[in-house]
Amino acid sequence: MTAPRSSVWLRCRGRRPDARYRVVVFPHAGGTANAYWTWAAEFPADCEVWMTQYPGRENRSAEPLVDAMDPLVDGIAAAIADQAQTWDTEAPAVRPHSAGTPDRAGTSDPARTGVPLVLFGHSMGASVAHETARRLRERRPGLVRLLVVSARAAPSVASPGQEHLLSRERFLEVLRGQGGTDESILEHEDLLDYLLPIIRNDYRLIETYRPPSDDRLPVDILAFAGADDPTVRVADVLAWADVTTASFDGMIFPGGHFYLRENPAPVITELVRHLRLVDQREPSREARSTPEPTWESSRPSGDSVDEMVVGCRARGPKGVRK
């Protein structure tokens, strides 16, 4: 018997039959499912967390790397759609706030049944999660209820790059600057011989990717940023507000590009808070005009948006309950 696609692309931190929420995590460039294994363990018991495993690493190391967005996302979206069929059979018949409402044919609206699915992507993974949400909009309307994008510029302001073309020495400088790779790894030549082709491949993928600039999703979006991230401006992360016809919220946390590793507790707390809110809201059906974000900051007036600290938010339209 052929293994289902989901068994290759998705790894679960631990099945939870009574889960009220599901989160699928999309790693950063060079990242793996295992890189988020410990982080995922911090979620509460009613959250079932799955990690996406890109080809060419860990248990998929025998497979060729994928250096283009479309084939990568096609595989992931197909795997999630396949796994969703299993989730459908496991879903309770009635759940508070999200029970299905029969339509004229007596079937349930797919946007209002089952366990809410949340896609969380960090850095490159944010763009992969966004493209996956776009694919699933066509394959399984209403399946994705919240898209969480972390440390990644919005499509309208993202720009191509050429760091994947740098020499080995210069490329290592880039990795050191981001702070996501342990120095002991960067000094281990044999290990670098294995890791650098994977990381450089992912850089090529994201730096040559051309995101859609005018396609908005009927899905709530939550954007996270590190206040001291040297790779992306806070304002460019908050520009994800333009990508949704539903509600938007933005949070800035202390730390750099890998702020979520530096102090994971407040990040997970904020993410879980939004999971709870998603289950209380109707899935978006009507487009809205993009609002001008309003800011709340614990810093004195006069600071630029890039200097805002945790507690600063960009909210959606007035009247949308957060």
Describe this structure as you would to a colleague.
The protein is an alpha/beta fold. The protein has one domain (6-315): Alpha/Beta hydrolase fold, catalytic domain (Rossmann fold). The chain is built from 10 helices and 9 strands. It has a 9-stranded mixed β-sheet with strand order 1-3-2-4-5-6-7-9-8, with helices on both faces. The longest helix is centred in the first third of the chain and has 22 residues, at 69-90. The chain is globular, with a radius of gyration of 19 Å.
Which keywords apply here?
322 residues; alpha/beta; 10 helices; 33% helix; globular
What are the low-pLDDT stretches, counting only 5+ consecutive residues below 50?
93-113, 285-322
Shape summary: globular
Strand segment tally: 9
Number of helices: 10
What is the averaged pLDDT score?
Answer: 81
Helix content: 25-40%
H/E element sequence: HEEHEHEHEHHHEHEHHEE
N-to-C terminal Cα separation, in Å?
A: 46 Å
Rg of Cα set: 19 Å
Q: What is the third-level CATH name, the topology?
A: Rossmann fold
Secondary structural class = alpha/beta
Strand numbers in spatial order across the main sheet? 1-3-2-4-5-6-7-9-8
- Under CATH at level 1, the class stands as Alpha Beta
Q: How many strands, what sense, and barrel or not for the largest sheet?
A: 9 strands, mixed
How much strand content do the residues show? 5-15%
Question: How would the blueprint of this fold be written?
Answer:
Blueprint: H1 6-9, E1 10-12, E2 21-26, H2 37-40, E3 47-52, H3 69-90, E4 117-122, H4 124-139, E5 144-150, H5 168-178, H6 183-186, H7 189-208, E6 220-226, H8 234-238, E7 248-253, H9 259-262, H10 264-278, E8 295-296, E9 313-315
Parallel strand pairs: 2-3, 2-4, 4-5, 5-6, 6-7
Antiparallel strand pairs: 1-3, 7-9, 8-9
Helix pairs in contact: 3-4
